[in-house]
């Protein structure tokens, strides 16, 4: 009786430890990227303002989400396959937002002033290029925060004309190319910074 | 109501037995009264347990609502601590309930713990804006639930784990077309081992259904690739069914005409798998794949024939399956593997085999007193008739001929059956006198 009781406690404790470790590992991974990653700012593509904050998260699209086959920078990338891993290197652009430099199917050697992101091909586009995701396409925002953000963006759009709504996404990138959203920028100013904890 | 219907059936039986003089007439009312009060006590005994479970659900829902209403106001560190505290709380509560011999409540706590683990994965992804490959989260969750099932010996957590792992493999194979996920098999085998060791009935359903989900993904993948693997996977499915059917019947207690417990579950799924695989094969091997099949090596079909043939011989040797089983199982497996799909007139052979399989399911259900098999057989029969009708709308003359011949054959069989039954009954009657 006593032995049965003690063994279930040990086994359940073991389960609790392993499950906690698994959760801790996810958090630790993210924290390392956010703490030590190289910081870049990507310009989020203009999205229909009515759809922007519908639901619990915002879909973010970037210029580097679409790799185009006629781009001379992508030469040598060849025909992409679904779910294939691609390494996309960006460099600082003129307006402070980072822009596409090159893409490759293998991790390129590190270069000063350039950052490489690891992406996955969502679907290829014939004959070259395709849609690529980097794991930074979702920004979870609760309703209150979303509405406040929407209001600020509307004000900014009105000041700058309707077509351009530059939402900057601050991204930190680990040496292995894994990226994490670290904050949001509007008109060149940080409006949200993600805490580590 | 169960009580009512059981009482009514019991009364009808008892009155018949009383007439035959097997039961004393004055005992009939006493037996019915006892059965009714026993049944009522059984149902009533569950009431406090049910109320307890409902109370726990309300408590948990209340806590969840409070936390989610204030979720954004809580710092990340506090959120993480809250998730971990809930996980540990549920697991330790389960251990305490189990050691205090509250089996069902412990089960609830362990399922809750496995659920909290999944919720934690999602909430952490949300906190850190992680948009990953979503099947990865399912896989991690499923493995976590499997760990809880194995260490805490929880059937509920195992069912959850197998469901999640099946969902993961389907998502990878159908949604993302990432090829056959062999990684499904090791955790599945651990789950199957647990079920065999603990003799969990609900778990047995989950083991079989999750394997079927995975096999469906495999068949679909190979069909996509227009490869021999599709026929092999379907043939394997039918062979597996044949082995489950023959093996379960061989393992069932010899004194009983009907199978019980684990054997009944295995037998039912086995018959269903073997019976339905040819129909699936027929649906999948449509015109575009037909000419590909001609190129397939005969060796692949030989493997299927060998597997099912062995099951049939094993069943016959153990004396547990009828000659009709021994004939139906290999025929079904071979048509499932698409052996007849490529030859001229193969469509009709396959249709005849599928109709034969439906009759086999009905007779097997009758022999083993398994109503669901009879119903499945009837449904398969109807589906096949419709299938043949719609497939051959162009050549209705052929179809009508096929149905006319088939109908005449069935009526002949029915007459033969009634005649045989009458002879047997007379023989028994004479023997009894």
Overview of the molecule:
The complex is a heterodimer of chains A (197) and B (433). By secondary structure, chain A is α+β, with helices and mostly antiparallel strands. Helix content of chain A is 29%, strand content 34%. Chain A has 3 helices and 11 strands; from the N terminus they run αβαβββββββαβββ. In chain A, the strands form 3 sheets. A 5-stranded antiparallel beta sheet of chain A has the order 3-7-6-4-5, with no helix packed on it. Chain A has a 4-stranded antiparallel beta sheet with strand order 1-9-10-11. Chain A has a two-stranded antiparallel ribbon with strand order 2-8. Chain A is globular, with a radius of gyration of 21 Å. Mean pLDDT of chain A is 80; it is low at 48-55. Chain B has 433 residues and is an all-alpha fold. Helices cover 82% and strands 0% of the residues of chain B. Chain B contains 17 helices and no strands. Chain B has helices spanning 2-20, 27-45, 47-69, 76-99, 103-127, 134-152, 155-175, 185-198, 201-224, 229-251, 261-284, 287-293, 298-317, 323-336, 346-367, 371-391, 396-432. In chain B, α5 runs antiparallel to α6, α6 packs parallel to α8 (185-198) and α13 (298-317) packs antiparallel against α14 (323-336). The longest helix of chain B has 37 residues, at 396-432. Chain B starts with a helix and ends with a helix. Chains A and B meet through α1 and β8 of A and α4, α5 and α6 of B.
Low-confidence stretches of chain A: 48-55
How far apart the termini of chain A lie comes to 44 Å
What is the assembly state of the chains in this entry? Answer: heterodimer
What is the general shape of chain B?
flat
Largest interface: A-B, 40 and 39 residues
Order of helices and strands of chain B: HHHHHHHHHHHHHHHHH
SSE order of chain A in H/E notation? HEHEEEEEEEHEEE
Task: Compute the number of helices of chain A.
Answer: 3
Q: Strand percentage of chain B, roughly?
A: under 5%
Q: If strands are numbered along the chain, what order do they take across the biggest sheet of chain A?
A: 3-7-6-4-5
Q: Would you report the number of β strands of chain A?
A: 11
Q: Report the biggest beta sheet of chain B as strand number plus sense, adding barrel if it closes.
A: none
* Shape category of chain A: globular
**Cα-atom radius of gyration of chain A:** 21 Å
Which class do the helix and strand fractions of chain B yield? mainly alpha
N/C terminus separation of chain B: 41 Å
**Could you list the spans of chain B in which at least 5 consecutive residues all have pLDDT below 50?**
none
Percent in helix of chain A? 25-40%
Assess the beta-strand content of chain A as a share of residues.
25-35%
Mean pLDDT of chain B: 81
Structural class of chain A: alpha+beta
